[in-house]
Amino acid sequence: RKEVEQDPGPFNVPEGATVAFNCTYSNSASQSFFWYRQDCRKEPKLLMSVYSSGNEDGRFTAQLNRASQYISLLIRDSKLSDSATYLCVVLFGNEKLTFGTGTRLTIIP
Amino acid sequence: DGGITQSPKYLFRKEGQNVTLSCEQNLNHDAMYWYRQDPGQGLRLIYYSQIVNDFQKGDIAEGYSVSREKKESFPLTVTSAQKNPTAFYLCASSIVAFSYNEQFFGPGTRLTVL
Description:
The complex is a heterodimer of chains A (109) and B (114).
Chain A: E1 4-6, E2 11-14, E3 19-25, E4 30-38, E5 44-50, E6 55-57, E7 60-65, E8 70-75, E9 84-92, E10 96-99, E11 103-108
Parallel strand pairs in A: 2-11
Antiparallel strand pairs in A: 1-3, 3-8, 4-5, 4-9, 6-7, 7-8, 9-10, 9-11
Chain B: E1 4-7, E2 10-13, E3 19-25, E4 31-37, E5 44-51, E6 54-57, E7 64-66, E8 76-78, E9 87-94, E10 104-105, E11 109-113
Parallel strand pairs in B: 2-11
Antiparallel strand pairs in B: 1-3, 3-8, 4-5, 4-9, 5-6, 7-8, 9-10, 9-11
């Protein structure tokens, strides 16, 4: 089993729709979780950290489910500019940051 | 503006040659990292440095070497011993290594071996 698993997609979603992705992780001792966004042929950039209680930033909501070992990202009222690859990133202890392979999202006009 | 720069953006290398990829940051971060990204795979850690004059191997260090003589700079050398060097190379930095702190990435270098 991979340490961090994501559905690669692609997710093709009409503009204005709501879309959600999950990411599962294998190590129950994982302590920090992040969503990064990567545009085509560009570097990853932090979208949001994921807190235990869940957190929201505008149209984006991140959730953590420790019992089932997954994190999720929900995007409401999707915009064309949301088209990107979303990387799930998990910190195990203080010595390893593992990146998922990413979920590709395309917003269709 | 603070940030991370990488050069060159594109690099072509003949088989058997060593090449060095540059990474500079002016964020005053202690930790710096090198990752490799291949299609269909997540970022994989090559080397990281927590402080000047110190660095550790990551998951795929074979065929690579680094140095950290200055806080701002963390160059990566891809040696001829690296069997499949064609990839997208990303340098990153953070305040401290492997913490909840955000990793900031440079724009990357695309290396192609001819």
